[in-house]
Every structure is written in C-alpha cells, then in structure tokens.
Design a protein that fits this description.
The chain is mainly alpha-helical and 270 residues long. It has one domain. Helices cover 69% and strands 4% of the residues. The chain is built from eight helices and four strands, in the order ααββαβααβααα. The protein has helices at 2-23, 28-39, 59-78, 88-116, 132-158, 171-189, 193-222, 236-261, and strands spanning 49-50, 53-54, 82-84, 163-166. The strands form two sheets. Strands 1-2 form a two-stranded antiparallel sheet. It is globular and about 60 Å long.
C-alpha cells in the first residue's frame, strides 16, 4: 500500500494543482481570489482594497487566516514539536477571543440581513454598527486560537519524539504572540499598499496551510502513521496528500459556487 501511494499521491497532486490553476482567474491575485472564493462571501464593503481591487477575503477572514498562518509559523520556529494544548489560563483567553469573534460575526450578519431585506427581523436589535476594524481584530484573535490548537493537534499526531509541553505555556508566550499579531493588524488597518499586497498572499497561504495540516492529520490516521515521524522531510507524502485534498476541496467548492452564482464576485444579496 505504501509503495502504491508513493506514486498515486504525487500524480493526484499534479492533477489537483493543474486543475485549480486552470479554473482560477488569471494572475497571482486571481489565484488568491479563487482560494478566498471557496471560504468567504467576499462582499466588497466588508473587505480591504488595493486601489479598486478587494483582497481575496473579507476583513474578518483576512484577520483570521493571516493570524492563524503566522501563529503556526511562530510556534513551529519557537517551540518545535510541542504537542501540549495551551495552558488552562491561556485557554480562557482564547475562549474569550472566540466569543468576541462569534458575537461580532453574529451582529454583523444580522446587520447585513437588515440592510439587504427592508423590515427584516425588526424585533432583534443590533448591539452596535459593525465595521471592518472590529471584523479584522476579532478575526485575528480567532485565528490565533485556531493556529495554536491545530499546532498542538498536528504535533500530537505526527511526532515520534513529542515534547508534551504546551507551545503556549506562559503569559509571556501569549503576550508576545498577541503583540506580534496586533502590530500586524494595525499595519493592515493603515491600508498601505506595502502591507496589503503581502497580506493578500499571506492570508491565502494561511488557508492552504491550515487545510493541508488538517488533511495531513486525517491521512496519517487513515494510513496508521501516527507518531512515526522525526522530521518534516520524512512526512513529505502525508503533507503532499494533505495539500492535494485541500486543493480538491477548494476546487469543488469553487466549481459549485460559480455554477450557483455565475460570478467570481461576492454572493448576490437580495
């Protein structure tokens, strides 16, 4: 079985990459848009823009997936192979970030419904007027939580010589991570083109990285390869399988959505 998958997975990866590049709009940002299109509503008013061109994802998803991707990178470089879930005191903070994300998202969605359908849900008041600053900040907090939990889950599944300590163990660990991500969020809010161009790509890489790691974990479990790797080089096949499955998922969603809406733009409202 192992010998067969060594041939099948690379071939499937080539097919998935070629198919995704073929259906996606032209240009680097066009390919980035195709990733965002699979996971985000892409409503222009709720997104940051490079001149007249919106980023691949809305403000909330830009914060979420940029933050998640950078969290994974920072933890991998600073706390390699640590598989413990964040300390309980830090979990409380991450839960608070999740609640802020959920409340702001719900309030924002309710506001959108009221804007789109006149007279809809008059009995449910909005807590406040939503805005892209809050979307970005709550998304950033949510992404940090997603990245730290996934990092621990991936480490627990992959490594033979696992360090069972949490990657986020102390208030110092959490404070440094929050500071880095907050600085990035403030830079995004400046809407400088020097920031938005790389963020457009980093956010998309965050999506692909998260999905690749999730599907790699699934692959390891199916192939019964848990806790059998000592380096990333050894797990190239599992990571490639994860990337392939991630691209196939994005491809299928893109095709279904464009079939449904007929446009690479935002979901039509009204």
């Amino acid at each position: 079985m192992q010998k067969i998958t060594r041939w099948i997975v690379p071939l499937a990866a080539l097919f998935a990459i070629a198919a995704f590049l073929y259906i996606a709009p032209p240009g680097l940002l066009g390919k980035a848009d195709a990733v965002g299109y699979a996971i985000c509503h892409r409503i222009g008013e709720r997104s940051f823009h490079i001149h007249d061109r919106q980023l691949p994802m809305c403000a909330r998803d830009t914060g979420t997936f940029t933050s998640a991707g950078l969290t994974l990178l920072i933890l991998a470089l600073s706390k390699p192979k640590r598989g413990g879930m964040p300390a309980k005191k830090i979990i409380v903070v991450l839960i608070a970030f999740f609640l802020a994300w959920a409340i702001d998202g719900s309030n924002s969605y309710l506001y959108l419904i009221k804007q789109t359908y006149e007279g809809a849900l008059p009995q449910i008041p909005n807590i406040y007027i939503p805005n892209n600053t809050l979307r970005l900040l709550t998304g950033t907090g949510m992404g940090m939580g997603m990245g730290s939990i996934l990092y621990a889950a991936f480490s627990q599944t992959a490594w033979k010589e696992l360090d069972t300590r949490p990657a986020l163990e102390t208030w110092r660990d959490l404070g440094l991570l929050i500071a880095i991500l907050l600085i990035l969020a403030l830079a995004i809010l400046s809407e400088s083109l020097l920031v938005l161009y790389p963020v457009a790509i980093i956010s998309v890489l965050g999506v692909i990285t998260l999905l690749t790691l999730i599907f790699s974990v699934v692959w390891m479990m199916i192939m019964r390869q848990e806790n059998s790797f000592t380096s990333l080089k050894e797990m190239w096949l599992a990571l490639l399988a994860g990337l392939t499955l991630a691209l196939i998922m994005l491809l299928v969603i893109d095709l279904l959505r464009i079939q449904l809406t007929g446009t690479w733009g935002a979901f039509p409202m009204g």
